[in-house]
Design goal:
single chain; alpha+beta; five-stranded antiparallel beta sheet; elongated
Length: 90
């Protein structure tokens, strides 16, 4: 996926994303913690067809769903690695 970002003065940071298949969307990381997702028409890439507004906790939930592995599993794996490095194999 290709991504670029730019600062939108007074609003936050805008992340432009394009998937391998050419689908385009933007994520506005606004202050304080609010996120807006804009989905664009593939036939008319300058026309947004959807806008989704997420509060900080909702954005966290979506991020958790998109992770390839739940955070609890990732933390457990990191703990196992640290234990191995420290010589305290679990």
């Amino acid at each position: 996926m290709e991504t670029t970002h730019s600062t939108v003065p007074g609003s936050g940071v805008l992340h432009d994303c394009q998937t391998r298949d050419g689908q385009q969307f933007r994520i506005l990381v606004a202050h304080p913690g609010r996120r807006e997702i804009f989905v664009y028409d593939s036939a008319e890439p300058d026309r947004a067809v959807a806008r989704i507004v997420l509060e900080e906790d909702e954005a966290d939930q979506v991020a958790e769903l998109l992770h390839s592995q739940p955070i609890t599993d990732r933390i457990a794996e990191l703990e196992r690695r640290v234990a191995r490095l420290a010589g305290m194999e679990r």
